[in-house]
Write a structure and sequence with these properties.
It catalyses: UDP-alpha-D-glucuronate = UDP-alpha-D-galacturonate. It is found in: Golgi apparatus, Golgi stack membrane. One of its GO terms (cellular component) is Golgi cisterna membrane. With 435 residues, the chain is α/β, with parallel strands linked by helices. Helix content is 44%, strand content 13%. It has a domain of 248 residues: 3-Layer(aba) Sandwich (Rossmann fold), CATH 3.40.50.720. Strands 3-2-1-4-5-6-11 form a seven-stranded parallel sheet, sandwiched between helices. A two-stranded parallel sheet has the order 7-10. It is globular and about 55 Å long. Bound molecules: uridine-5'-diphosphate-glucuronic acid. Uridine-5'-diphosphate-glucuronic acid (UGA) binds next to strand 8.
Length: 435
């Protein structure tokens, strides 16, 4: 067989003499050997750098210095059909809402609530690995069963956003996609700029050109109050002293939102969420990983302020936040622009959505100990200079007045629901049962 192969001219149709053939074979063998050697060399160099790289599949999932984004596929008649179906309104005067961050903690709860009452909903999520994407996929699976299609894609992808607006005339955008987390901003600052600033601008650009323009409700953060020491925090208080890059990007988002409202007539409502917690929550948040670590016997670190002062948060239960989000959508006025041009003044609002009763982090741990019936291995450390603030407390009178917002869940009742969910989720995950 090898003989047969050797007799075949290298260029079909051209005959070569034996001598030529011999020399050529010798040369080609030696160059083939060189080629193989060089290829092996380059291959080992590539392997070496690949193994060193933080995004290689061999690196531990705990390495969150970079987020991995999947390659998305979207478009096509089947995809458009799913988008249209999911966006179909099933109630009188229902909205058609694009929920960015649809597979996220708040996004999945808001999407489910909108769908339940008959609104049309499309989710959008990039499923990045800031925390376990498996949890996001499980949230998506639940939503899909409820009739909500979550498109896999990024808010920085203008083409995808324009396509979504071509297929569906969204009346509202609930913008919840963001790089969350206060302390992670020191590890991966660029991801905050990419999602919370570039992504927001990209989304607003598409919204401003959409016809009709949607009304936008989006997630700002209680962290914008930064070094503000006057409590409770009111929307009128200073927000020009952020303590973390995360807070700075959210504050920048509020300024950017104002610009798009002012120039293009987009109706925009910013919601300053106060440490939202609950079932299907975010594993990067303290209440979540404290629960995990208490149950597995790992020590937990509790931060304290100067002079052993306590650190406290106005923890707000997810169902209360969802009510605030829906009320914001329902009270949002229409945007006034068309074809990228403003036709008149448009609504611009900012609301605190908190619980109005701050709880010390050490008290949160005591509640978890009681609910889990396990003593925590506490390690108390001074609050590191990592962007955290010592205290948050929302004044919610504006949201109460304008949105009818009234939180009803205290921390203990909310954590009880979270713990119940957490234990069920863990056991289902171990058994790999369906959701
Ligand atoms: O409400 C907000 O604006 C913000 O709420 C949370 O941020 P944070 O309040 O810092 O929530 P956690 O990270 O869960 O921390 C809660 C409390 O636990 C404390 N903590 C955290 C981690 C730890 O190991 N030990 C500890 O005592 C923190 O100092 C903080 O006081 C979210 O992570 C942000 O995305 C959100 O924007």
């Amino acid at each position: 067989m090898s003989q047969h192969m050797d007799n075949i001219p290298s260029t079909p149709g051209k005959f070569k003499s034996d001598k030529y053939h011999y020399i050529h074979r010798f040369r080609s063998h030696s160059s083939l050997a060189k080629l193989i050697l060089w290829s092996l060399f380059f291959f080992s160099v590539i392997c070496f750098f690949f193994l060193l790289s933080p995004t290689s599949p061999t690196s531990p999932p705990a390495d969150r210095s970079r987020r991995v984004l999947a390659n998305y596929t979207w478009g096509g008649p089947e995809w458009e059909k799913k988008v249209r179906q999911s966006a179909r309104v099933r109630s009188d005067h229902g909205h058609t809402v694009l929920v960015t961050g649809g597979a996220g903690f708040v996004g999945s709860h808001v999407s489910a609530a909108l769908k339940r009452r008959g609104d049309g909903v499309i989710g959008l999520d990039n499923f990045n690995n800031y925390y376990d994407p498996e949890l996001k996929r499980h949230r998506r699976d639940l939503l899909e069963r409820a009739g909500v299609f979550v498109v896999e894609g990024d808010i920085n992808d203008s083409e995808l956003l324009r396509k979504l607006f071509d297929v569906v005339a969204f009346t509202h955008v609930m913008h919840l996609a963001a790089q969350a987390g206060v302390r992670y901003a020191m590890q991966n600052p660029k991801s905050y700029v990419n999602s919370n600033i570039a992504g927001l601008v990209n989304l607003l650009e598409v919204c401003k050109s959409a016809d009709p323009q949607p009304a936008i409700v989006w997630a700002s953060s209680s962290s914008v109050y930064g070094l503000n020491s006057k409590v409770p925090f009111s929307e009128k208080d200073r927000t020009d002293r952020p303590a973390s890059l995360y807070a700075a990007t959210k504050k920048a988002g509020e300024a950017i939102a104002h610009t798009y409202n002012h120039i293009y007539g987009l109706s925009i409502t910013g919601l300053r969420f106060f440490t939202v917690y609950g079932p299907w929550g975010r594993p990067d948040m303290a209440y979540f990983f404290f629960t995990r670590d208490i149950l597995t016997g790992k020590p937990i670190t509790i931060f304290e302020g100067p002079d052993h002062g306590s650190v406290a948060r106005d923890f707000t239960y997810i169902d209360d936040i969802v009510k605030g989000c829906l009320a914001s959508l329902d009270t949002a006025k229409k945007s006034t622009g068309t074809g990228g041009k403003k036709k008149g003044a448009a609504q611009f609002r900012i609301f605190n959505l908190g619980n109005t009763s701050p709880v010390d982090v050490s008290k949160l741990v005591s509640i978890l100990e009681k609910l889990l019936k396990v003593k925590a291995k506490r390690r108390v450390l001074p609050m590191p200079r990592n962007g955290d603030v010592q205290y948050t407390h929302a004044n919610i009178s504006l949201a109460q007045r304008e949105l009818g917002y009234k939180p009803t869940t205290d921390l203990e009742s909310g954590l009880k629901k979270f713990v119940r969910w957490y234990i069920t989720y863990q056991s289902k995950s171990k058994k790999k049962s369906s959701w």
